[in-house]
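So, can you check?
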Amino acid sequence: MAAKQGIGDLIDLVKAYGKQELVEPVRPLPRWLAYGVGGSLLLMIGGVSLTLALLRALQTETGTALTGNLSWAPYLITLAALIVTMVLLGLRIKKRSL
Protein backbone atom coordinates (compact mmCIF):
# COMPACT_ATOMS: atom_id res chain seq x y z
CA MET A 1 0.00 0.00 0.00
CA ALA A 2 2.89 2.36 0.78
CA ALA A 3 4.39 1.74 -2.68
CA LYS A 4 1.16 2.86 -4.35
CA GLN A 5 1.15 6.01 -2.23
CA GLY A 6 4.78 6.72 -3.16
CA ILE A 7 4.07 6.22 -6.87
CA GLY A 8 0.99 8.46 -6.64
CA ASP A 9 3.04 11.15 -4.93
CA LEU A 10 5.73 10.82 -7.60
CA ILE A 11 3.16 11.20 -10.39
CA ASP A 12 1.64 14.25 -8.68
CA LEU A 13 5.11 15.73 -8.22
CA VAL A 14 6.00 15.18 -11.91
CA LYS A 15 2.68 16.76 -12.99
CA ALA A 16 3.23 19.79 -10.75
CA TYR A 17 6.82 20.16 -11.97
CA GLY A 18 5.73 19.90 -15.60
CA LYS A 19 3.07 22.53 -15.08
CA GLN A 20 5.50 24.84 -13.29
CA GLU A 21 8.38 24.49 -15.74
CA LEU A 22 6.57 23.96 -19.06
CA VAL A 23 3.05 25.37 -18.99
CA GLU A 24 3.53 28.52 -16.92
CA PRO A 25 6.46 29.98 -18.94
CA VAL A 26 4.58 29.39 -22.24
CA ARG A 27 1.32 30.95 -21.07
CA PRO A 28 2.24 34.58 -22.03
CA LEU A 29 3.56 33.47 -25.44
CA PRO A 30 0.41 34.22 -27.55
CA ARG A 31 0.14 37.77 -26.20
CA TRP A 32 3.89 38.32 -26.68
CA LEU A 33 3.69 37.05 -30.26
CA ALA A 34 0.60 39.15 -31.02
CA TYR A 35 2.31 42.34 -29.84
CA GLY A 36 5.48 41.42 -31.72
CA VAL A 37 3.73 40.68 -35.01
CA GLY A 38 1.49 43.75 -34.70
CA GLY A 39 4.39 46.01 -33.89
CA SER A 40 6.46 44.57 -36.74
CA LEU A 41 3.66 45.16 -39.24
CA LEU A 42 3.18 48.74 -38.09
CA LEU A 43 6.94 49.41 -38.26
CA MET A 44 7.06 47.90 -41.73
CA ILE A 45 4.15 50.01 -43.03
CA GLY A 46 5.60 53.15 -41.45
CA GLY A 47 9.09 52.40 -42.73
CA VAL A 48 7.93 51.88 -46.30
CA SER A 49 5.83 55.05 -46.17
CA LEU A 50 8.65 57.16 -44.77
CA THR A 51 11.16 55.72 -47.24
CA LEU A 52 8.93 56.55 -50.19
CA ALA A 53 8.24 60.00 -48.75
CA LEU A 54 11.98 60.67 -48.43
CA LEU A 55 12.61 59.49 -51.98
CA ARG A 56 9.82 61.62 -53.45
CA ALA A 57 10.91 64.64 -51.40
CA LEU A 58 14.48 64.31 -52.66
CA GLN A 59 13.26 63.95 -56.24
CA THR A 60 10.84 66.87 -56.21
CA GLU A 61 12.12 69.38 -53.65
CA THR A 62 15.74 69.56 -54.76
CA GLY A 63 14.80 71.11 -58.09
CA THR A 64 17.35 70.39 -60.78
CA ALA A 65 20.22 69.67 -58.37
CA LEU A 66 19.64 65.90 -58.47
CA THR A 67 18.65 65.44 -62.10
CA GLY A 68 20.52 64.37 -65.21
CA ASN A 69 23.73 62.59 -64.27
CA LEU A 70 22.78 62.71 -60.57
CA SER A 71 19.30 61.19 -60.96
CA TRP A 72 20.55 58.12 -59.05
CA ALA A 73 21.51 60.15 -55.95
CA PRO A 74 18.05 60.26 -54.32
CA TYR A 75 17.91 56.47 -54.48
CA LEU A 76 21.35 56.11 -52.90
CA ILE A 77 20.54 58.66 -50.18
CA THR A 78 17.25 56.89 -49.43
CA LEU A 79 18.98 53.50 -49.32
CA ALA A 80 21.64 54.84 -46.94
CA ALA A 81 18.98 56.35 -44.67
CA LEU A 82 17.08 53.07 -44.67
CA ILE A 83 20.20 51.06 -43.79
CA VAL A 84 21.11 53.45 -40.95
CA THR A 85 17.56 53.20 -39.60
CA MET A 86 17.62 49.41 -39.74
CA VAL A 87 20.97 49.26 -37.94
CA LEU A 88 19.73 51.61 -35.21
CA LEU A 89 16.56 49.56 -34.76
CA GLY A 90 18.61 46.37 -34.66
CA LEU A 91 20.82 47.78 -31.93
CA ARG A 92 17.74 48.51 -29.83
CA ILE A 93 16.80 44.83 -29.65
CA LYS A 94 17.83 43.70 -26.18
CA LYS A 95 15.22 41.28 -24.86
CA ARG A 96 16.40 37.72 -25.46
CA SER A 97 13.57 35.75 -23.83
CA LEU A 98 9.95 35.99 -22.82
In short: The chain is about 80% helix and 0% strand.
